[in-house]
TrEMBL record:
Keywords: 4Fe-4S, Iron, Iron-sulfur, Metal-binding. It comes from Clostridium estertheticum subsp. estertheticum. Residues 180-209, 216-237 form the 4Fe-4S ferredoxin-type domain. This is Ferredoxin. InterPro entries: 4Fe4S_Fe-S-bd, 4Fe4S_Fe_S_CS, EFR1-like, Flavodoxin_dom, Flavoprotein-like_sf, PSI_iron-sulfur_center. Ferredoxins are iron-sulfur proteins that transfer electrons in a wide variety of metabolic reactions. Its cofactor is [4Fe-4S] cluster. SUPFAM superfamilies: 4Fe-4S ferredoxins (SSF54862), Flavoproteins (SSF52218). The keyword Metal-binding applies. It holds the Pfam family Flavodoxin_5.
């Protein structure tokens, strides 16, 4: 079973690409988290978690979902993290999570995909994004082949610097950066409610035919990057930046 969490489509695309090789069932953690109910998942095949990297670890919302979910059947777990540049020491926290859930850790892979964190970084235009995805695809398919053969995914050596980044910068990232207070809409908003539908934490409500953000935000960037009118901004950091949203998938 492949479970993915995705704000702007990178991890969804990666999960779908792996599924083309393994033929496993694909499940959206976004949808399960949005429903807000504890679930039990059973698979006789390994559990394959595909998730973005937030502050150089797996997102807190994903970690909480895994901790609160009953996994039955296979005890094997693979982790694939998408990112713009590096996952640093995210693997350490994945191992700890596997120990808590009594998973047999089957390896960890980093997949470089187009940067999507428009609230802080520069994001690629469509041409640049397509080039990055094209370069990543052979690696993703190779990961799928290794999983299909039940082979362990190679874990890269972690430096002291990477340990520092994931241990200390991650908490600061959540304290200083992860907040919905900076989001707002411009007059281009047509009240389509797509941002409401996409928010995995049900943090966006319509007020007077316009979206309003509340206190439960994970900075997945789904709302701002998928808005069809580019009517959502984040403080003054997103202005004039291209919106990146991966709508691609592999044809059967």
């Amino acid at each position: 079973m492949i479970l993915y969490f995705s704000g702007t489509g990178n991890s969804r695309y990666t999960a779908q690409a792996i599924q083309k090789i393994t033929n496993d069932e694909v499940v959206s953690m976004n949808e399960l988290i949005k429903k807000g109910i504890k679930v039990s998942l059973r698979s006789h095949e390994p559990f394959i978690f595909v998730t973005p990297t937030y502050g150089w670890r797996i997102p807190k919302v994903v970690e909480a979902f895994i901790q609160n979910t009953d996994f039955k059947g296979s005890s094997h777990a693979y982790f694939i993290l998408t990112c713009g540049t590096d996952t640093h020491n995210a693997v350490h926290y994945v191992r700890k999570l596997c120990n808590k859930k009594k998973f047999d850790f089957m390896g960890f892979s980093t997949v470089i995909m187009p940067e999507n964190y428009i609230a802080m970084f520069e994001v690629p235009d469509k041409v640049q994004a397509a080039s990055i995805i094209k370069k990543a695809l052979p690696q993703i398919l190779a990961i799928g082949e290794r999983i299909k053969q039940r082979q362990f995914l190679h874990v890269e050596k972690v430096t002291i610097y990477s340990r520092f980044i994931s241990r200390f910068i991650n908490p600061l990232f959540y304290i200083t950066s992860v907040s919905a207070k900076g989001f707002y809409v411009t007059n281009a908003c047509v009240g389509c409610k797509k941002c409401v539908d996409l928010c995995p934490l049900n943090n966006i409500k319509m007020e007077g035919n316009k979206p309003s953000w509340f206190g439960n935000c994970t900075h997945c960037m789904a709302c701002i990057c998928a808005c069809p009118k580019e009517a959502i901004e984040y403080k003054n950091k997103s202005k004039v930046k291209p919106r990146y949203y991966n709508t691609g998938y592999l044809q059967s």
